[in-house]
Specification:
- By secondary structure, the protein is an alpha/beta fold.
- The protein has a single domain (2-16, 31-280), classed as Rossmann fold (3-Layer(aba) Sandwich).
- Helices cover 36% and strands 17% of the residues.
- The chain is built from 10 helices and 10 strands.
- It has an 8-stranded mixed sheet with strand order 3-4-2-5-1-6-7-10, with helices on both faces. Strands 8-9 form a two-stranded antiparallel sheet.
- Helix 2 (51-64) crosses helix 10 (266-280), helix 4 (128-140) runs parallel beside helix 5 (160-168) and helix 6 runs parallel beside helix 7 (228-236).
- The longest helix has 16 residues, at 182-197.
- It is globular, with a radius of gyration of 18 Å.
- The termini are far apart.
- The structure holds adenosine-5'-diphosphate and magnesium ion (MG).
- Adenosine-5'-diphosphate binds next to helix 2 and helix 8.
């Protein structure tokens, strides 16, 4: 995949802001997303727990509440945001100021390294140093405009990407996603510990795939066990923002590129909008006196 690396290097060479800002550190992070009043990262120690689904729906929910929102897909090796927002076939283009123009849909500005490849199924076979510089370019050189919120959909784990984001952004709120079972909560513990260690503010925990309600009988089944989110919330003193059921409709909408907050039933929407409203009233964000509200 040398061609992808060459392509990126060429893009970086064209970039007007190249190498202006040295890398930060977690004690004194850079403020690369200076155009965003608030930065939310959606993270977890674990893959497949619903980070991207939740990031997309929090972003879309915030847009529905009238805020200007951008979403950055930081999962370079498993990017799902473009499909979940129906922009996966769009490719990169530049404006007259040599800035990358983000895709737009559902009132969101959207950027993902997946949009820099020749086709949606091209894998990014990058060493982490290349992935890091790509991420920085997507923060520096995208025409995001003024945003109330930049929502960052993180890859799983506690490695390079997490460190880069924590070094380069002033995180307003890190939202941690878990599922109920121990195999997930073990990894999520590590993610919480990492956030505590690097002093990133943890805005709350979301338990996804919490339970399944049988459409025939209405009986609630705890497929992945019970209480993982509540337990972690208590153990680490982090608020539980919501419990989202396992619902095939949520999966279908993700596959179809329709945020649940746009296309879901009132009940489906309420799981995500409840979380958005809990976040907005939590006092974690600068919203007063100058939130660039679209009215
Ligand atoms: P991650 O970003 O953590 O890897 P995703 O958001 O990609 O996880 O979700 C993994 C898969 O699970 C996707 O197919 C998604 O549609 C599905 N999914 C996520 N949350 C739910 C849910 N509450 N009910 C049903 N399917 C879900
Ligand atoms: Mg994901």
């Amino acid at each position: 995949m040398d061609s992808e690396i060459l392509r990126l290097k060429k893009l970086q060479a064209q970039s007007p802001n190249k190498a202006k800002v040295p890398y930060g550190n977690t004690q004194k992070p850079n403020n690369r997303a200076h155009y965003a009043k608030n930065v939310i990262i959606v993270t977890s120690g674990k893959g497949g727990v619903g980070k991207s689904t939740i990031a997309v729906n929090i972003a879309s929910g915030l847009a529905q509440r009238g805020f200007k929102v951008g979403i950055l897909d930081a999962d370079v090796y498993g990017p799902s945001v473009p499909r979940m927002l129906q922009v996966e076939h769009e490719r990169l283009h530049w404006n007259s100021l040599d800035q990358i123009v983000p895709s737009e849909n559902f009132g969101l500005k959207i950027m993902s390294a997946a949009l820099t490849t020749p086709s949606p199924d091209t894998p990014l076979i990058w060493r982490s140093s290349v992935a890091t510089s790509a991420m920085i370019q997507l923060l520096d050189d995208v025409a995001w405009g003024d945003l109330d919120f930049l929502v960052v959909d993180m890859p799983p784990g506690t490695g390079d990407s997490q460190l880069t984001i924590a070094q380069e952004l002033r995180i307003s709120s890190a939202i941690v996603v878990t599922t109920p079972q121990k195999v997930a909560t073990d990894d999520v513990r590590r993610a919480i510990r990492m956030l505590q260690e690097i002093k990133a503010p943890i805005g709350g925990l979301i338990e996804n795939m919490s339970y399944f309600v049988s459409p025939e009988s209405g009986v609630r089944h705890s497929i992945f066990g019970e209480g993982g989110g509540k337990y972690l919330s208590k153990e680490y003193g982090v608020s539980l923002l919501g419990e989202i059921p396992l619902d095939p409709g949520i999966r279908e909408m993700s596959d179809d590129g329709l945020p649940v907050t746009v296309g879901g039933s009132d009940l489906q929407k309420s799981f995500f909008m409840g979380i958005v409203d809990r976040l907005l009233s939590s006092g974690q964000f600068s919203l007063d006196g100058g939130a660039v509200k679209e009215c």
